[in-house]
Design a protein that fits this description.
It contains seven helices and 17 strands. The chain has 400 residues and is α/β, with parallel strands linked by helices. The chain has one domain: Rossmann fold (3-Layer(aba) Sandwich). The chain starts with 13 loop residues before the first strand and ends with a strand. One of its GO terms (molecular function) is serine-type endopeptidase activity.
Amino acid sequence: MFVEPDTIVSVHGKVEQSNVPSWGLARISNPQPGADSYTYDSSAGEGITVYSVDTGVDVNHEDFEGRAIWGSNQVNDGDDRDGSGHGTHTSGTMVGKMYGIAKKAKLVAVKVLGNDGSGPTSGIVAGINWSVEHARQNGGTKKAVMNMSLGGSSSSALNRAAAQAVEQGMFLSVAAGNDNQDAQSSSPASEPSVCTVGSSAEDDSRSSFSNWGPAIDIFAPGSNIVSARPGGGSQSMSGTSMAAPHVAGLAAYLMALEGISGGAVCDRLKELGTSSITDAGPGTPTNVLINNGGAKGGQPNPNPAPAPSPSQPSEPQQPTPSQPGQPGEPFPGEPFPGEPFPGQPFPGESAPAPAPAPMPPTPQHPHTPYPGGDNFDFDSFWKKYFGGEHWRKMFSSFWN
């Protein structure tokens, strides 16, 4: 005689998306580069919530099918939209119907970077904390993924906030950075508990811009990735910013399919991945490229979590070119190596889409300022909680 949990069994089927719009989708479900279809389990991230900690998201974009909502604006600019295009692009890769990996996951937009793609450390920390609390109240942190396609110079406050989110059960995918240097010099990429992502090109080489080193956990497609743009349609961008959402989307997919929690996801990604990356970079401990299981004889098997018993209630549910190129084209030249173009965090990246007209606050998209309202005092907050006076340290989105 034996006793085991009475688990719930569901029907799962394989779905094939042919002629994918972005090579990255096909690459993560096939053993070799060059494929043009994405094969995935029909569970597709259902029941998982992904937090886009970024420049905001066009939550009304058709690719999100109503599964995206506006969460919080920590930039405190009264502009509840994605004026950059960066956050919409990364979110499309995570959960979009056409461009995304976890096609049934929900998405919450958390704006921590302004329309120029930069923002202070304090706002990013506030965005992380807001996301953790929101997840706790809406389905639980163990069913939540956070994507951070951003970074800047080393910050103990930012690394600590990221680590605390992981401790609460969330999975964090973090861009390694685009300086072709050791990612240990960047935050939050240098935080050991997050999953730090390097970028790969179509031939499985490390993208020329991608950071490297001991902090790298895994690689994902990041060069010339096509995804959603604000206002509708798509655009192509490159950067570790584009690699990290592939990992976040696949994390949501595996969490739904296998019932694993955030703390186990990065190791599971390494198990399913393929040793494909050439020239991973000095001191990089891995050459593993993410894969959803298609490279190793098929998709992982569903492994649903046990159904809660009546006596144990479940968790609550709920310098300086004057004109940038056209969308999809690189900026011309790099007259000052290492210096960003005006309004663009990293040189060499595809031009962002023109921003749509500002959207006034509505009941569906209320402006969410820092705690304390529009008169929030950054200096007092920073001194009180972090003991320093450097809240003005700026962080940027990691797109090239």
